[in-house]
Structure to design on (95 residues):
C-alpha cells in the first residue's frame, strides 16, 4: 500500500498516531520502574530534539516554511507522541 504525504513532518505525525496503540500496550506491560525509565528517556529525547528545533528556529526566521527542516519538525512531533504516550501510561498507572 503506497501512502503519500505532503511532507516528512506529516509522515512522522501519522506514524506517531499509527503506533500509539502498540506503544501504549507495550508501555502498559512494563514494570513500574521500567515505565518510569521509559518516561524519563522519552522526556530526554524530546528535550534534545526540541532544543535542536529551538536553535534552528532562532537561526532561521522562516523555519516552518522551509522544506529542509520538515524532517526535524517531524522528528520533534514523533518524539512528542512517544513522550506523551509514556506520560499518559504513567499517569494512568499512578491514579
Amino acid at each position: 500500500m503506497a501512502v503519500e504525504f505532503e511532507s516528512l513532518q506529516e509522515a512522522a505525525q501519522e506514524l506517531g498516531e499509527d503506533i500509539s496503540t502498540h506503544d501504549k500496550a507495550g508501555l502498559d506491560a512494563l514494570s513500574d520502574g521500567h515505565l518510569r525509565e521509559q518516561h524519563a528517556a522519552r522526556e530526554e529525547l524530546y528535550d534534545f530534539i526540541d532544543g535542536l528545533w529551538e536553535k534552528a528556529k532562532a537561526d532561521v526566521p522562516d523555519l516552518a516554511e522551509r522544506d529542509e527542516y520538515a524532517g526535524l519538525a517531524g522528528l520533534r512531533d514523533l518524539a512528542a507522541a512517544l513522550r506523551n504516550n509514556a506520560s499518559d501510561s504513567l499517569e494512568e498507572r499512578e491514579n
User: Anything to note?
Assistant: The two ends are 40 Å apart (CA to CA). Helices lie at 8-28, 32-59, 70-94. The chain has three helices and no strands. The CA atoms of residues 9 and 70 lie 5 Å apart.
